[in-house]
Amino acid sequence: MVQLGDIDRSDPRPPYQQIAGMLRSAIESGTLEPGARLPSEAALMENFGVARMTARQAIQELRGEGLVIPEHGRGVFVRPMPPVRRLASDRFARRHRDAGKAAFIAEADKAGYQPGVDRIEISRTTATETIAERLRLPAGDEVLVRDRRYLANGRPVEVATSYLPIAIADGTPIEEPDPGPGGIYARLEEAGHTLARFSEEVGARMPTPDERTALEIGPGIPVLTVVRTAYDVNDLAVEVCDTVKVAPAYLLEYDVPAQ
Amino acid sequence: MVQLGDIDRSDPRPPYQQIAGMLRSAIESGTLEPGARLPSEAALMENFGVARMTARQAIQELRGEGLVIPEHGRGVFVRPMPPVRRLASDRFARRHRDAGKAAFIAEADKAGYQPGVDRIEISRTTATETIAERLRLPAGDEVLVRDRRYLANGRPVEVATSYLPIAIADGTPIEEPDPGPGGIYARLEEAGHTLARFSEEVGARMPTPDERTALEIGPGIPVLTVVRTAYDVNDLAVEVCDTVKVAPAYLLEYDVPAQ
DNA sequence: CTGTTCTAGACGTCTAGAGGAGTTGCAAGC
DNA sequence: GCTTGCAACTCCTCTAGACGTCTAGAACAG
Question: Which segments constitute the HTH gntR-type domain (chains A, B) (predicted)?
Answer without folding.
Answer: 13-81
